[in-house]
Every structure is written in structure tokens, then in C-alpha cells.
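Example 3.2
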Amino acid sequence: MPTKPVFQLKALISACSLSGILLLGGCSEPETANSAGSEPLDPVVAAQQELLTKGRIRAASCAACHGPQGISNNPMYPSLAGQAENDLLQSMLAYRSGDKVNALMSPQARSLSDQDIALLAAYYAALPGQ
């Protein structure tokens, strides 16, 4: 049986998945027109754009090592784009808790909230990999 924080984190992860973003983004709100004004904005496309925008903003500090699009140019740092969301999530949680230790990544992960970790995992998983 999961402990309360683990259960809460799993609920948060679900909320940050694409379907969760649709719900949080207000699917019941009226559809807005695209920039051309001719067709309503598809809610799935809008949710994905929101994920990519929020993720890109939050991932700005990650780009120095993992690349601006999650593809590292340095073999010392892994590329994150296109990796499985749960794998990314578990790795960041392990760095944050100290179960996994890296001189650069551990301090970075300690500063991340559960919401940050869920957003970053969803963002990098949504990017095209190599």
C-alpha cells in the first residue's frame, strides 16, 4: 500500500499527463479561435502547446547540460528527449531523495517540487528523441 506522499505524487503525475492537463486547462471553457480566427483551437493541441511552453520555461536550467531540446551534445550528460515519462520521474525522485547520487544532478533535483518533477518528466517525454 503506497504511503500518503507517494499516493499524492502519483495523483499529481496523473494530473500532469496530457489528459490531466486537458482537465486542468479547462476543457469546459469556450473554445478560442486560432490566430487566423477561422477555426476553433483543438483542445488536445492547446494542451500539448501549454505543456511544451510550461516545460520549456521550467527546463531552462536543465538546458546547460541536457541541451535546449533535451538532446545533449556532451556524452557526460544523458539526452532526456523522448525518454519514458515514468523513467524520468523516477530518476528525478531518486536524485532528490538521495537514493541516486550525482555531484551535479543531486543538488539540482533537491530544489525541485513534486509539481516541477512531474512537469519536467512530461515535457521531456513529449519531445522527439534522437
